[in-house]
Amino acid sequence: MLKQRLSTEVLIEFLMSQRLAIHYRTTAIQRLFPGAGGMVAVVFHAFAPPRMSQVLRALFLLVVVVGVIGVARPTTGIAEAHYFSTLNPGAALPEDCEQRVRRSSWEPRPLNYEANQTRGRGGVAIDGASADFNRKFRGRVDGNFTGTTDEIIRWVACKWGFDEDITRARAVQESSWRQSKLGDRSDDARVCARIGEGAPCWQSYGLLQVKATVHEGTFPLAQQSTPFNADYALGWLRACYEGAFSHWLGDDYGPGDEWGCIGAWYSGKWYDDAAVDYIGHVKAYSAARAWKEPHF
Length: 296
Description:
mainly alpha; 2 domains; 13 helices
């Protein structure tokens, strides 16, 4: 049954990817060449024969795109691609990340579409962070972005000053980039009551598996909104990286250790066995660039 369910999910993702392909491509063209996206849609729908096969329709769309780009001159220059790397503790965090994220039609998880288009809201404090950190950054967690799954990952990596490939790898480890991922099932009614659910319940949700029974105020947005899920998780990571957990994470903990904080997100401890094992998996996914593998 599990194999059948996974096969069905893969099939649905493929069918949705065909349905969304023109939407994403037209949107990307529109962002790179203002006015061109609308021209593509008009020309394609006006002249594409209704009974044309998927392959022929794709070829026809390619001809239309090439032709439109040939006559549509961009009114502004194409934004330079940025690679987002980890910023040191105390560094000023960027405020223009939405503009800095290069848009793309690539979407390996089309089932994320609805959650990817759902913006979050502000006002949620970072669990466990110092009062000073929350006073400074609490309003920054808002999930105010929409895009493909990879665009969301790049946006949040930029926003909180972390390496984008490490963030991609964390999402592989946590959910294989599926916002629908549920984790940490509990049969304890007292635990489930923390998020207003009856037992049994799932405690962890989404792309980076935000544990809602621990991170107060994140449910149900962490399940409903991919941008909010990622925004909160990396906001927590920045708090750890800045040294805002010194009152509870132990004497060996200190600021500036990204990998230690990545392990603590999983285990809640500083370099315990579970954290070390988790770190190893994330490093392996990052080195292999698992999200670029053919069957990801």
